[in-house]
Request: fold
Amino acid sequence: MAGVATPELAAAVSNAGGLGSIGVGATDVAGARAMIQATHAQTDRPFNVNLFVHATAQADVPREQQWLQALRPLFNEYGAEPPSALRTIYTSFADDAAMLAMLVEEAPPVVSFHFGVPSADRIAALKAVGCTLIASATSLDEARQIEAAGIDMIVAQGWEAGGHRGMFNPALPDDQLGTLPLTRMLVAHTSVPVIAAGGIMDGAGIRAALALGAVAAQLGTAFIACPESSADDAYRAALRGEGAQHTVMTSAISGRPARCLANRFTTWAATNRFDAPHYPIAYDAGKALNAAAKAGGEAGFGAQWAGQGAPLHRVMRASDLVVQLWQEANLSV
Reply:
């Protein structure tokens, strides 16, 4: 939930008995340190820090220029011009020595990885300071790589999940395994504890995940509407709207497959099938387009990530939602 999960949200979840999480993949070292310290200041319980471990982006200027030209009519609709060139706006943890050094200093209780696993030396450095490590898998092959790397737990990210698919290599075929079969497969064929993720919005979903053999359930979309999240008014309104019933997997916004609420951008992408540049280079264009559209009063080009369970969301404080989830699942804190 990079960009939506705040220290306030993470701390509220942890204080209520869950494991709160902050996503730092979309910020720099200083921003990540500030978020970690702000979370520590609001809770003395464990919380998770999530990082992106994507392959280093490869510039492809002709492809990027073609993409910008394809987007030009959308920019022009709001009186704006597309950027002249695109940048790699996020640094992968695999390439970020400064981020590793900061994490070793801060030693957050839990660190999780999306899009892959870091090198053995980075894993060893984090384990040496007591961090519990988690990584996401969308397939059994990815889960086995996580297990072989010595990661402590695996998140089974089903096709239903909101936000970016955690695929290690998005160029390979995606079997699009749902949360139920993927969770059961990883429980049966790996020896690492499994956390189920994707489409889980209430206690009934948590109970189902535990019945499959998962040790826990991971919920993201369920917390977007909480006042502690940083989702803007347009995102919250879209979550209540028709688009929540028609979530779409698209690469147009960021350059990687991600599930979001159906909106103007996903509708355009469905009929204009250009190849987006690599992640996160394409995201530079997506963010610029969203900014131009919002300045013109249109909120339908944002990264409004959400899973297939979006219509089941509830508007309440995060601490109250965690208590509600515990009660629905017949669990005790």
